[in-house]
Amino acid sequence: MLEWGSILIENAKIMDKLTITQPDDWHLHVRTGKILNTVIAHTARQFGRAIIMPNLKPPVVTVEQALSYRQEILDALPTGSNFQPLMTLYLTGNTSVEEIKKVADSEFVHGFKLYPAGATTNSDAGVANIEAAYPLLAAMEKYRVPLLIHGEVTDAEHDIFDREKIFVDSQLSQITQQFPELRVVLEHVTTQDAVQFVESASSNVAATITPQHLLFNRNAMLVGGIKPHFYCLPILKREQHRQALVTAATSGNPKFFLGTDSAPHLTHLKENSCGCAGCYSAHAAVELYAQAFEQANALDKLEGFASFHGADFYGLPRNSATVTLQKQPWQVPASYGEADLSITPLLAGEQLQWQLI
Length: 357
Ligand code: OTD
Ligand code: ZN
Ligand code: ZN
What we know:
Blueprint: E1 2-4, E2 7-9, E3 17-21, E4 25-28, H1 33-46, E5 49-52, H2 63-76, E6 84-90, H3 97-105, E7 109-114, H4 134-143, E8 147-149, H5 163-178, E9 184-186, H6 192-200, E10 205-209, H7 211-215, H8 219-222, H9 239-249, E11 256-258, H10 267-270, H11 285-295, H12 302-314, E12 322-331, E13 351-356
Parallel strand pairs: 4-5, 5-6, 6-7, 7-8, 8-9, 9-10, 10-11
Antiparallel strand pairs: 1-2, 2-3, 3-12, 12-13
Bound molecules: 2-OXO-1,2,3,6-tetrahydropyrimidine-4,6-dicarboxylic acid (OTD) and zinc ion (2 copies).
2-OXO-1,2,3,6-tetrahydropyrimidine-4,6-dicarboxylic acid (OTD) binds near residues 232, 263 and 278.
């Protein structure tokens, strides 16, 4: 038996068991109603906490709404679960400085989410002109409320594969320059350019990385037929970018942490002539990350990425419980949920190597 920090490795040559501090998911969609009921146990099985995205219809825009959404999530949890939903508000052109102060004073709401209008699922209420929202960003900087950003431009003339880089160059660099003390999480980074920006920014700027962007490039979605369950936004990029993400995630740099962006959609709405964006990964999130870290020979870096860096950035205590992963191949089910509400998970029907025990 060999100990690396708090990671316990039994059988050092063929590493087949891994115990780490319980991780958190710093970017998650759980929806409401029946979908919430189907998905929440998957997240609660693995994670201590998760940052809950506010892109409901209508969006979560006030602390009061966030508290009632939080209660709905708590009510949907399996009995005995200690899972804690960490709420966020959706930043709109109508957000007030008063609401930002309320978030600063709330122990349950942890930030605002900025969606450029039209960038992703349920983002129509997002910010059309970011500069017009600068007074709000100034208030968030002043009251130390984190800003979580979907970093893509949405103008029709920009190629979908370039939208993140253009956002970083034209918008994010302005925001971090104007508001150097603002705490910023660039959500779900997908490009080498975004990684480099975050690395060279101040310690107030961090990023989440999804399992699909660590494991797959755009060939997974497009070679041999269109695979709608790999379609998410920001869209999967080319291999060079995937490699940059793996390097960042496994570097031990505290600016990078786990955020699944697990986004459940009904199967028939994804397998559709105009399929919706989002990968459902909550069923196997930690297992998927373990696979990516193992492929990079970096399982010893998983705990920092999954369990420490995010809590440290948000100024929350690290979890005290642990979880254990075992190398024990299992087959991902074809779907979850009742027939007419079926959700197809990422890698449905495929074998995964690691299993949470
Ligand atoms: N991306 N789908 C969704 C959100 C994310 O940009 C995101 O955070 C969703 O369905 O809510 C997606 O592809
Ligand atoms: Zn997003
Ligand atoms: Zn998301």
